[in-house]
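hey so i finally got around to running the thing on that chain from the lab meeting. sorry it took forever, my laptop kept dying and i had to restart like 3 times. anyway pasting the input first so we r on the same page abt which one it is
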Amino acid sequence: MMCESKQRDGAKSWLTREVFLGYLIGMPRTARQSLGGMIFHVLNRGNARDRVFADFAGYTAFEKDLAETQAKAFVRIPSDCVMPNHWHLVLWLLKDGDLGCFMQKLTTTHVRRWHLHHDSVGTGHLY
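ok and heres what got predicted. didnt touch it at all, straight out
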């Protein structure tokens, strides 16, 4: 069954109902390529642009989480910039596929420690 569309030349549309629903339902995005030897700029922002770092201790705790995560991964960090509601990292991957693992470990560790410190476990997203 073709979706009806008015075209000037009278040709029928290629967009069938099944094709349209396929785009809406089972079409996950393709995973990003993260090749070793490449440099990536990554960032993360607080949910609803809320403040993530309120004081010096918050910045220090994030830097500690960053150092711990880097020690367990094959990633170099040439540069980082941490601001009150977000942060930027420049990451140099040494092995293929390490970007996702590194970011998952870093953000999960930081979010768990942040919620424990702020006594807000179970109250929602940080990022």
